[in-house]
Amino acid sequence: MAIFRAAIIALTGVFAATSTLAQDITLTSHDGKVEVVGTLLGYDGEFYRLETQFGELTIDGSGVTCDGPACPNLIDYVAEIRFSGSSVMAEALLPALLKGFAQRENLTVSRQEVDGRETIYSLFQSDRKAALAKFFIRSTDTGGGFEDLVNNKADVVLAQREVRQSEMDAAKVAGLGDLSHPVRSRVLALDAIVPMVSSDNPVQNISLSDLVRVFAGDIANWSELGGPDAPISLHLPPNGSGLAQAVDDQLLFPSKTTLSDDVIRHTQIRKLTQTVVNDPFSIAIGSLAEIGDARALALSGGCGHEITATRKSVKTEDYPLTAPMFLYLPQYRLPRIARQFLAYTQTPAAQVVIRKAGLVDQEPETIRIGLQGDRLANSIASGGAEVGLDELQRMIEVLRPMSRLTLSFRFETGSSRPDAQSRSNILQLAQALEGGVFDARKLTFVGFSDGEGPASSNAQIAKLRANTVRNAVLAAVETAIPDSTELTTVGFGEAMPMACDDTEWGKKINRRVEIWIQ
């Protein structure tokens, strides 16, 4: 009732002017003294959301009665939640999570296909004839999802990339809040952008710089990559899709490169993959989750580093072309069952569903130091010249009793701001600490740097970076963490490079904070 009273104060004495407007509901206080007339934007079972001539208002339903053709059925109220965006998320991931959620809540699910793009999933309780909720899922693309949100056709955006500035501006104008704020988005699952070829193609790896040159048309024959003397056929996802836009953001834009006119676009990802499988001289950039029978090329660097997209390398962001899958939420209250579903997507049970759907989950895993052979070998073979044996021995001595968590933290290019996946990891680790997951354990935030500058300075920068991430995690803790949980920091500078420092992406992947646990 407090929200309603606030609206009363703002609107007292001006309601006579609203009576002539073509509005579809009237909310009246129980004492009959105040009325609010407006167009119903939504009802979540507890609160009404109205567009009035005075702006958008949220009003507690317990303090009012509703009159008008759009008033919801309060006896058999059916919550409606609309999702729109990425086809991969809409057609595979979200339905799987809804079924998992329904099973946990002892609900049944019915599926109704409205047209080629929209599907309705209705959730039912055993003792109720009417549906408890209807989830409308529209399969379009990331850009289309943000358009639907702004046009009040969606409540949640399914995005395969981060929101862009123009989309944030449009959302603010529409009164949907700041979509860049951490509470307005969450990472649902992880995927990776992978260069893929036919299993008959002898090429096993490609550098990021060569990959860009291939799709720019500067490298046109496989012989230039150590393959057969044959022209390269280029294939990409549909223009405007979240995956294609992620390729633009992570590959083309940083290198200031434009695509070759010979690139063939495919409206269906499955068709793109099958084209590559059938043509040994083709190459595509696609999704790890939908690689099918194609083969992903490892990414290589000039100093011998080679990284393959695997579940663990994607989780840790050791693989440089990770592609988080986002949910973007407006600044208004969703129905209770929608909030329950969103909470479920962060649970361990949901991570199992995500893995079964072919995507990378966010459940932390540990990697023993004995399984870090390639990284340790790289630290000896290509570590900075100023990194002496004493520093390498110190690093091994500190890390040997521990295991590495798959939660890592990296930073946006040219910035101290954690990237999207790392911001999600900060919240995830904070929640785990609060929940006592690491009770009586020691967590060490281990900072690393690139090789630019003196090794001693890089070690200090790495330690500061580790302190910054630890402080961000502690700031995200809403209550407290157990006294038995110990958090420490250490910096090893350029002592364990993940990639060569001869490219910007190599430097970016080397600037990181890892979590080691004992």
Short description:
By secondary structure, this protein is of the alpha+beta class. 31% of the residues lie in helices and 26% in strands.
Q: What this model shows, in words?
A:
- With 518 residues, the protein is an alpha+beta fold.
- Helix content is 31%, strand content 26%.
- The chain contains 15 helices and 24 strands.
- It has helices at residues 2-11, 87-104, 142-150, 165-173, 208-216, 242-252, 269-278, 311-315, 336-344, 348-356, 373-381, 389-399, 420-434, 455-476, 504-510; strands spanning 25-29, 35-43, 47-52, 55-60, 64-67, 79-86, 108-113, 118-124, 133-140, 156-159, 185-197, 205-207, 233-236, 264-265, 282-287, 295-296, 298-300, 306-307, 322-328, 366-368, 403-410, 442-448, 486-491, 512-517.
- Strands 6, 7, 8, 9, 10, 11, 13, 14, 15, 16 and 19 form an eleven-stranded mixed beta sheet that branches. A five-stranded antiparallel beta sheet has the order 4-3-2-1-5.
- It starts with a helix and ends with a strand.
Count of strand segments: 24
Provide the low-confidence segments as ranges.
Answer: 1-22
Give the averaged pLDDT, no decimals: 86
Sheet having the most strands: 11 strands, mixed
- Write down the Rg: 26 Å
Structural class comes to alpha+beta
Query: Helical amount among residues, as a percent range?
Result: 25-40%
Shape: globular
Q: How far apart lie the N and C ends?
A: 50 Å
The DSSP helix count reads 15
Q: Beta-strand percentage?
A: 25-35%
